[in-house]
From TrEMBL:
It comes from the Eukaryota. This is F-actin-capping protein subunit alpha. Belongs to the F-actin-capping protein alpha subunit family. Keywords: Actin capping, Actin-binding. F-actin-capping proteins bind in a Ca(2+)-independent manner to the fast growing ends of actin filaments (barbed end) thereby blocking the exchange of subunits at these ends. Unlike other capping proteins (such as gelsolin and severin), these proteins do not sever actin filaments. Residues 154-175, 216-255 are annotated as: Disordered. Heterodimer of an alpha and a beta subunit. InterPro entries: CapZ_alpha (IPR002189), CapZ_alpha/beta (IPR037282), CapZ_alpha/beta_2 (IPR042276), CapZ_alpha_1 (IPR042489). The lineage of its organism: Eukaryota, Fungi, Dikarya, Ascomycota, Pezizomycotina. Residues 244-255 have a biased composition (Basic residues). Pfam families: F-actin_cap_A.
């Protein structure tokens, strides 16, 4: 990897929440004359950033009607999520490079440079836990919309779909589910932006669960930076109780 590519990749990884396109414009303005093909070599860096930051995108409307996977259940109420954003992560990346959304049963292309989703198609993941995924998705969606601003959520199997025709073994040790929650607040005109990310991994076989929460803040006042150097990190445990929305216990530490 050339020094220019390494430097530009570091710029991408340090992009503040909601400001990746500003970084892209800066890279283009600095290298358009000397290295016009640099952006094409930076695709791995863009993918790493979007998946680690749990980037969100608006999913274009499909031409055919979308059947919701949700119905009223023990979570208490039904929320219409037809216009919700989709999450980009390693958990919902398909082998062909597309991504899927468990909420709308849709797969789609994603441009990691422009952060735009396109070409939505019907898709259902061949997981043995489809009913559990649907139930957890509804619960975490309702919970997130009650407690977070403009959230996006997703529940995904942590193993990629197999080419085999047989269903995966639901009792396999590797058969776990990832529960993701993202909330973004952007206000560049006021010199701040922030992103909340929660990732939990749950084992249906053992009922074990562990997770991490990251809050990333940028452009803080000097006195705030002195109190919390770098992103605030928390580790948490998601509490899953039948008939109740998810709750969490958390321990917080700064670094």
């Amino acid at each position: 990897m050339s020094s220019t590519t390494e430097i530009a990749s570091s710029f991408i990884q340090d992009a503040p929440p909601g400001e990746l396109q500003d970084v892209v414009k800066d890279i283009q303005s600095l290298t358009s004359d000397t290295d016009p093909f640099l952006l094409s070599r930076l695709k791995p860096a863009f993918q790493k950033y979007n998946e680690e930051q749990l980037a969100t995108a608006e999913l274009p409307a499909r031409t055919e009607p979308v059947r919701s996977i949700f119905s009223p259940s023990s979570c208490g109420h039904y929320t219409d999520m037809s216009s919700a954003k989709v999450i980009i992560s390693k958990y919902n990346r398909l082998p062909d490079g597309r991504y899927f959304d468990s909420e709308s049963n849709t797969s789609f292309d994603f441009d990691h440079v422009t952060q735009k989703a396109s070409n939505p198609q019907p898709y259902t993941h061949p997981s043995p836990h489809r009913d559990l995924i649907a139930s957890l998705q509804m619960c975490i969606s309702n919970y997130a919309h009650e407690h977070y601003a403009s959230p996006a959520t997703g529940v995904y199997p942590t193993t990629a779909p197999s080419d085999s025709d047989s269903d995966p073994d639901p009792d396999s040790n590797s058969s776990t589910l990832a529960l993701l929650l993202v909330s973004n607040r952007y206000s560049p005109s006021n010199f701040w932006s922030g992103r909340w990310r929660s990732t939990y991994v749950f084992s249906p076989r053992t009922h074990d669960h562990h997770g991490a929460l990251l809050r990333r803040r940028q452009r803080q006042p000097d006195h705030a930076q002195a109190r919390a150097r770098g992103p605030l990190r928390t580790t948490g445990i998601l509490l899953l109780r039948p008939g109740h929305p998810p709750r969490r216990k958390r321990r917080i530490r700064s670094r």
